[in-house]
From TrEMBL:
UniProt cross-references to Gene3D superfamilies, sorted A to Z: Cytochrome C biogenesis protein, Tetratricopeptide repeat domain
Residues that span the membrane, as ranges: 117-135, 175-195
Ranges where the record places region Disordered: 141-171
Protein name per its UniProtKB record: Cytochrome c-type biogenesis protein
Record's GO cellular component terms: plasma membrane
Length: 321
């Protein structure tokens, strides 16, 4: 006759069916966790500049990041990232700086919204629900709970006998199977989403490369890096010939102490628009270094055409000195 110890041993034994359920739940949870890690993990890149630049899209390229592109625009953006990191700014602050100037199109991975956001919110909730359902289904009932539901015959057990744990009811089993199916579908969805990272997705339309180039060139001028700004203005001119961009190039060359280059650039504008006030202004300032005898005549012509130009007062003082 089995004593109390034998009854307890029998009650503590786990049935093969229950063991199989535990293994299925553990496998599903592990697979979902692995899928999430695969889809969210990034490569082990130790270069902080490359890490930040890898999250920015090259405006002049198709499907290339700033880290991988060899274009002058990407080089200038990498330099800007390096300088901001040296100033102590965080990667998030640098990304926000680029977004404020060039829009969200500059990001290689725009912020998750809608369905993309659900892909990250649902897994945690589903895993918690599956774990709760598994615990509720597979945990044996307490003896007093089982006795309360078993009826008068079960309540008349001898005091020394151990009440074996009873399985949960059909509602809990249905909940367990529904949760297991949900986790299975979640694992499949995460695996598919993670697999998409290795496939060439359709390239999103890049931001206007000329607009981004001009903004970046102006930022470089604000940092007094006129040579780099001039290089970007030349890049913009190759894509979009424009007198306004040509004049910006001439101004940048003048500030970079390249008066001869500034004169050559502005003469191209004046050949098409002989009475351009800004063109005459840049030409007169450049001539003060290259052709000092001709500079006063050019600057007076500028004042005649644009007496209320923002630079007019300074040019009058320059001519009177």
């Amino acid at each position: 006759m089995a004593g109390p110890l034998g009854g307890a041993a029998a009650g503590g034994a786990m049935s093969p069916r229950r063991s199989l359920r535990l293994l299925v739940v553990a496998a599903l949870l592990a697979a979902a966790a692995v899928g999430l890690l695969r889809s969210s993990s990034s490569g082990p890149d130790t270069d902080p500049v490359r890490t930040v630049a890898g999250g920015l899209r090259c405006p002049a390229c198709q499907g290339e990041s700033v880290a991988d592109s060899a274009s002058p625009i990407a080089a200038a953006m990498r330099q800007s990232v390096a300088e901001q990191l040296a100033q102590g700014r965080s990667p998030a602050e640098i990304r926000r700086w680029f977004v404020e100037r060039y829009g969200t199109d500059v990001l290689a991975d725009p912020p998750a919204r809608g369905v993309s956001l659900l892909l990250w919110a649902v897994p945690a909730l589903a895993l918690l629900a599956a774990g709760a359902a598994a615990l509720r289904t597979l945990r044996p009932r307490r003896p007093e709970e089982a006795a309360g539901r078993a009826g008068p015959v079960a309540r008349r057990r001898t005091p020394g006998s151990a009440a074996p744990p009873t399985p949960r009811g059909p509602t809990a089993r249905r909940l367990w199977w529904v949760s297991s199916a949900g986790v299975t579908l979640l694992v499949v969805a995460v695996a598919v989403a993670a697999g998409q990272t290795g496939r060439p997705a359709p390239a999103a339309p890049p931001a206007d490369p000329v607009a981004v180039t001009l903004q970046l060139a102006r930022d470089l001028e604000g940092q007094q890096r006129y040579d780099a700004a001039a290089a970007l203005y030349r890049e913009a001119l190759r894509d979009r010939p424009d007198d306004g961009i040509q004049l910006r190039l001439a101004f940048a060359l003048l500030r970079a102490d390249d008066a001869a280059g500034a004169e050559r650039a502005v003469r191209e504008v004046l050949a098409r628009s002989p009475e351009s006030p800004d063109g005459l202004l840049v030409l007169g300032l450049a001539q003060r270094r290259t052709r000092p005898a001709e500079a006063p005549s050019t600057l007076r012509r500028f004042l005649t055409l644009a007496p209320h130009h923002p630079a007019a007062a300074e040019i009058r003082r320059l001519l009177d000195s």
